[in-house]
Specification:
The protein is an alpha/beta fold. It is about 40% helix and about 15% strand.
Length: about 325
């Protein structure tokens, strides 16, 4: 596994990190989840990305991770870099969502109990809620560091204005933002311009989620929507309306370039996301050990020729492709 320093810090992260957004909840197969986490660790993926609402049910991904950690990896805590987040809907009532100090602090305490941990390596504000002053949210993250509940802090999906304000507040408190997390893929490049630029200037590492566009860049939708896929689920984040013929055709064209590179479409999509020098790591979501191993093979070819980049740009620059 290759590792890269995270912004202007002493922390190195694996180029691929394992996300537990899907396939690690109570409705999923616990044995498969265990096998994926152990295989990831054996392959050098030491960074595991959680959030308090991951499941389903919300919180169950953290609980299951905690069980696996303490059963199989208890002696390896100092080799792991464990992240969690708070900010999206988690429990009923006005305090179970959003970016208030109350939600951030209570969420972190609950997440630590579910994972069976004394501290998180990094704890994020999962989103800017549009209401809570950024000063309040950042002050809550700073408090978590002061209390020893988190070693580092991060932000996720913050708009540029609030993103810069967060950096300024954290830096002034001598708790710089270690990681900035944004959705980024060949089909969603909005963060690449302003968000990435601000993060790089602030010395924050950049970690990308959904690098395969919720599976659209895996090739699984090239022949329609499979019955067990995310787009087929009523609660899935990828909706059938997003699986357009234009995007499917773009995926087919990209797969031809990937084939010439000796890669699958998914492997090339991961390599492309990591090709940006500002990106520290990409979060992958997997449903099997086999899929995890296939994603790891993307690291064997991260180089792109100018002709390949131009051909890819021509395909993905069509207005109907971007989310």
């Amino acid at each position: 596994m290759d590792y890269k320093y995270c912004g202007r810090s002493g922390i190195q992260l694996p180029r691929l990190s394992l996300g537990l957004w899907h396939n690690f909840g109570d409705t999923d197969n616990f044995q498969t989840a265990t096998a994926m986490i152990l295989r990831a660790f054996d392959a050098g993926i030491v960074h595991f990305d959680l959030a308090n609402n991951y499941g389903p049910a919300p919180g169950s991904a953290e609980s299951n991770f905690g069980k696996i950690l303490h059963t199989h990896l208890q002696g390896h805590r100092d080799e792991l870099f464990i992240a969690s987040k708070a900010g999206h809907d988690m429990w009923p009532g006005p305090y179970g969502t959003g970016s208030s100090r109350k939600n951030i602090i209570a969420s972190c305490d609950q997440s630590l109990r579910r994972c069976g941990l004394d501290y998180f390596d990094v704890f994020y504000s999962h989103r800017y809620d549009g209401v809570t002053p950024v000063e309040e949210t950042m002050d809550a993250l700073i408090q978590l560091v002061r209390q020893g509940k988190a070693l580092y802090v991060g932000i996720s999906k913050y708009p540029p204005r609030e993103q810069q304000l967060a950096y300024d507040i954290l830096l002034q408190a001598h708790v710089p933002c270690l990681l900035s997390q944004y959705r980024h893929s060949l089909f969603d490049r909005k963060a690449q311009a302003e968000n990435f630029k601000l993060a790089a200037c602030a010395g924050s590492g950049i970690i990308c989620f959904s690098p395969l566009a919720q599976g659209l860049l895996s090739g699984k939708y090239n022949q329609g929507i499979p019955p067990q896929s995310r787009a087929a689920r009523s609660t899935g984040f990828l909706q059938p309306a997003q699986v357009t013929e234009e995007r499917v055709e773009a995926a087919r064209q990209l797969a031809l370039i990937a084939e010439q590179r000796g890669q699958t479409l998914a492997q090339m999509a991961l390599a492309w996301a990591l090709h940006d020098e500002r990106v520290t790591s990409c979060i992958i979501g997997t449903s099997s050990v086999r899929q995890l191993d296939s994603n790891l093979e993307a690291l064997s070819n991260l180089h792109f020729s100018d002709d390949e980049l131009a051909a890819i740009e021509q395909i993905v620059s069509a207005p109907s492709i971007s989310f």
